[in-house]
Amino acid sequence: MKEPSPTKQGDKRYALLMAARDSDYVKKAYGGYFNVFLAAFAEQGERWDLFRVVDGEFPDVDDLHCYDGFVVSGSPYDAYGNDKWILKLCFLLQTLDSMKKKVLGICFGHQVLCRALGGKVGKAMTGWDIGLRRVKIVSGRFLEDLSQMPPSLSIIECHQDEVWEVPSGAEVIAFSEKTGVEMFAIGDHILGIQGHPEYTKDILCSLIERLLNNNCIEVIKIK
Fold this sequence. Notes:
By secondary structure, the chain is an alpha/beta fold. 24% of the residues lie in helices and 26% in strands. Strand 3, helix 3 and strand 4 form a beta-alpha-beta unit. It is globular, with a radius of gyration of 17 Å. This is Glutamine amidotransferase domain-containing protein. It is found in: Cytoplasm, Cytosol. Pathway: Secondary metabolite biosynthesis.
């Protein structure tokens, strides 16, 4: 069991709940997905701990109060699956919600947050969405303090599942032509994002290559 890392008083402490295993490319180029997330989200003075929930490694319930927030990563697994670790993750997310802990869910994390808190997820009605997607931002309570938020933004996407119905009390704060729920929020502590703000172009290209090699997707030639 991993123990929370010691921090100085006043330092922020976060936990990354990793729902995917490192790809060979990411291990070679970045040293693992943990470093990718640190580069995208971590700020100086913060402490981040890694829990590989996909392998059954979870924070101890008695340590949850030590953290200022949690991030749930993407995953090749289905958020609506009944693997033991996914069900345990759902219970953890319900606990964090009841504690009003800040939680950010990305791709799979976005979907499993929705499922855990009472929403519905499943296969995307229009199939895979891979590449750069323009999403439109909807004003709401979660964005009240973000006066500089643009009306739309572009984000890297790679998913074949989606949120069908958000949990009770949630608000949809972004959508696209491809996906009806690109982002949702509950209060000021829960945020789900279907896209991958942590991805870089090279990570996406490597992922596309793996999907093609594994026959998960195919190239359609337009004559």
